């Protein structure tokens, strides 16, 4: 019987407990988490930044340099899509707009304890989707 409510415990309670037991993340999972942190930082730090076709290359370099400062970050490639900026600004009185995901293509590579994670962000169905492309290195399930 359960001490808290005087009802009999389920015969499956031990099985349920075993199947919901928590474990420490694998090294590969931690590497993926690190990559996610980098993407969250990149996107939320720079979203809303004023950008024009002329300032796009320097903004891309600043984004790359900023994120590469973070631990475990090996490489960051940011492409601010000037074609999309030009389209956005066509017919506008302004010569700049605010940076959003639709103007970005990004790749981030993280190496955490011998596990390399490659992640990318690109527009998919009108949404800036961030995804893990690959995990490699020592046994990826490690």
Protein described:
The protein is α+β, with helices and mostly antiparallel strands. The chain has a single domain (25-137), classed as 2-Layer Sandwich (Pantoate--beta-alanine Ligase, Chain: A,domain 2), CATH 3.30.1300. The chain is 34% helix and 30% strand. The protein has helices at residues 13-19, 27-46, 56-68, 82-89; strands spanning 50-51, 73-80, 97-98, 104-112, 115-124, 127-137. The strands form two sheets. A four-stranded antiparallel sheet has the order 2-4-5-6. A hairpin with a 2-residue loop joins strand 4 (104-112) and strand 5 (115-124). The longest helix has 20 residues, at 27-46. It is elongated, with a radius of gyration of 22 Å. The model has no long low-confidence stretch (mean pLDDT 88).
Give a topology summary.
Layout: H1 13-19, H2 27-46, E1 50-51, H3 56-68, E2 73-80, H4 82-89, E3 97-98, E4 104-112, E5 115-124, E6 127-137
Antiparallel strand pairs: 1-3, 2-4, 4-5, 5-6
Structural features:
4 helices, Pantoate--beta-alanine Ligase, Chain: A,domain 2, alpha+beta, four-stranded antiparallel sheet, two-stranded antiparallel ribbon, 34% helix, 142 residues
